[in-house]
Amino acid sequence: MRNFQQNARSRRPFFAALATELLLEVMRRALPLLTMAGFSLGVAVMPGLKMLTETPAQKAWSRRRHFSLAFSSRS
Question: Would the CA dihedral through 40, 42, 45, 47 be positive or negative?
Fold first, then answer.
């Protein structure tokens, strides 16, 4: 499980750099509709990819984490 978390952390700088480059290009070309369409597509595709690529162990860990977060808040 730790290996999965470490791999996710190691990809963050790559995605941040990629997003920065793409955002600069979109701003330079002034294409707000393309930006909104791409963002919407990304929001729709990423959860689907996560569902397809997650192992059963990762799914169980994710469920436990969300369950514990839901009941750990003190009001």
Answer: negative
Backbone angles phi, psi at 33, to 5 degrees: -65, -40
Contacts of 16 (CB under 8 A, 6+ apart): none
Q: What is the total residue count of the chain?
A: 75
Residues 6+ apart with CB under 8 A from 58: 1, 4
Tokens of 21: 């480059």
Q: Which pTM was predicted?
A: 0.38
Task: Record the tokens describing residue 34, joined without a space.
Answer: 């393309």
Neighbour-count burial of 3, counting CB atoms closer than 10 A to its CB (0-12 exposed, 13-18 middle, 19+ buried) = exposed
Choose among 21, 11, 20: nearest CA to 46.
11
Between 14 and 24, the more confident residue is: 24
